[in-house]
Amino acid sequence: MADGLRCAPCTDHLASELADVPSLVAELDITRARLDRIAEPGAPRGGGEVPLGYRPTVAEVSDVLGMTLTSAARDLALSGRAPHVDLPSQPIQLAAWLLDQREALRSEHRVADELHYAIRVTRLAIDRPPERVYLGPCDRCDHDLYTAPAARATHCGQCQAPYLVEQRRRWLLHSLREHLATAVEISQGIGELYGQRINRKTIHVWHHRERLVAHGYARDNRQPLFRIGDVLDLAERSATRQPTSKFATTLAR
User: Distance of alpha carbon 163 from its chain centroid, rounded?
Assistant: First the structure.
């Protein structure tokens, strides 16, 4: 505008984006919990990358959104165009506070541009294509294999090699057992692939009681790494173990 302020349509657009932050945060949480594929550094490939229960890129996007909202609110308060109050710390509350300051945002072009960018990147992170099932790399050309969840057979998109989905899924689950992961990663989805719910605290208890051996530590947070197959075996034994009554013990004697 001639007065140097953002025009009304641009301001309304930014306001609508800030109003969408609660739904974006909810979608980020859902997307973060879905299975993604990452390779275990230093571990044998064992047939390809394996699914783990979080999306590193989505976690980073979530951090960027939170930091951008925090920085925008702080800059706006320090500029004197917004009231000096104790700013909230959570993204949803920060977005609501910034929405209340929409008139002040009209003169803060850099802040508005950074908010636009962070929200756009967030949308890209949660805007996924139709759900497909990962079946590992192709045996012939190493191309990643994907198929629809209900498909019985599929083929490689690059070399056209045919595969039976159930057979390939069994192979993928078997190869997954040999990989290493933290207790958090195993508890956030890997166990459910095998029909088992595994609590993170339970894994740490097994480790503390020396029933579970750690095989190194994660590079980023120094969390112990466990062989996935070892955790699954312990979970299966714990689920099938039945308490023995005193009467049954007497009969056994």
Answer: 28
Contact assessment for residue 173 and residue 35, using Cβ atoms and an 8 Å cutoff: no
Angle between helix 109-126 and 56-78 (nearest 10)? 160
Non-local (6+) Cβ contacts of 81 within 8 A are: 101, 104, 107, 108
- What proportions of the chain, in percent to the nearest 5, are helix, strand and coil? 50, 10, 35
What's the pLDDT score for residue 249?
A: 41
DSSP state, residue 243: P
Mean pLDDT across 191-197 = 68
Token pair listed for 14: 């930014």
CA distances to 40, 183, 187 from 193, rounded to whole Å, are 18, 15, 11
Q: Would you say 84 and 77 are in contact if contact means Cβ atoms under 8 Å apart?
A: yes
Q: What are phi and psi of 147, to 5 degrees?
A: -155, 165
Closest CA to 194 of 226, 231, 227: 231
pTM over 0.70: no
